[in-house]
Amino acid sequence: MISLQHRSIAHFDMDSFFVSVECRDDNSLKGKPLLIGGISDRGVVASCSYEARRYGIHSAMPMKMALKLCPHAIVRKGDMEKYSQLSGEVTELIAEKAPLYEKSSIDEFYLDLTGMDKYFGSMKWTAELRQHIMKETRLPVSFGLASNKMISKVATNEAKPNGQMEIMFGEEKAFLAPMPVEKLPMVGKETAGQLRRRGVETVKTLSEIPVTLLEAWLGKNGISLWNKANGIDESPVVPFHEQKSISTENTFSSDTIDMQFIHAELVRMTEKIAFELRQQDKLTGCVTVKIRYSDFETVTKQMTIPYSGSDHVLLEKVKELFHKLYDRRLLIRLIGVRFSHLVQGNYQISLFDDTQEMIALYQAIDNIKNRFGWQYLMKGTNAVPPAKRGAVTKPAVMPYPKVR
Questions:
Q1: Does domain 245-389 have CATH number 3.40.50.1980?
Q2: Residue ranges for the binding site for Mg(2+)?
Q3: Are the C-beta atoms of residues 308 and 283 closer than 8 Å to each other?
Q4: Is 297 noted as a catalytic residue in this protein?
Q5: Is the pTM here over 0.85, yes or no?
């Protein structure tokens, strides 16, 4: 059995993915400050080119502010359907060749190449895969190769744009030492600020602080931070299809054709599993609706969609599928909703149409659900039990509590 210390892990990142796709399809955009995101005054930047970053622009910044920083920037709304399709193509190219891979987001992948040195040479093999992806997609790709996931990701960031880097086993601490603490994954402005106020500016200084002291400063995060600063990360590469779907269904105590009640159930169920998606920092690329009629015939219909984790996007697709599927006009015994084709990703992936207010609203809603439970905050149609809405049947679940 090969020790975790001697693993060989590659991290692939499609450089400025949305921007690169737009530049590939329109050569006139290359080398210019380009913003992808909401095109209204209240829109938000989903991605930006390296040229735009020089003006201090970054993802999730209000578009209005970004255009103040760089008035001559070019703004494109973006095409999530196209990006999702290309992400799938890259996934297929990696799946054809990699012994074990994890799709960590729409444009990032980890590959476990442990043991491959005996036959091919991990660096040679990884570099050839990078060239293959770039040839097939005409998109830039960067990668880092190291003994664990954390080091390989940091190496990728250092290799960008459109580069590659290998950190040899045993050189992890020396590689990290001169970097500012912000270079470590998951070290945000708040944590970096706490460290800098204590005189900790580089990873080297951080690595020399006793772990017990870091734990006293930052709690459990202090232990994780100490491990990172010392180049330690034993997290495995998780196969992409580990979790195939998130789903829920409801069998009614009495069969029904009350459309108002059924629509309310679809909203409730969609919101429930969409919240689960966001809790796990995942997005779905496929929505399925299931109906079981009173005669026990069961039918399903699914739809491939641009990756999303947003209630309003997913609910629209769920309702559309239900109306296409429900064609027998019989009493309904059961309905179900399933999200599949899951990938890691956060809400920023869906910023093309959303405003600052919409993003803030989702964050506030999820904070309330985290504190009190998902069922304590739902759309208005679900706040009142079905019987009070004139429903002729009741679901085999507890009545929904009112928002508190």
A1: no
A2: 13, 107
A3: yes
A4: no
A5: no
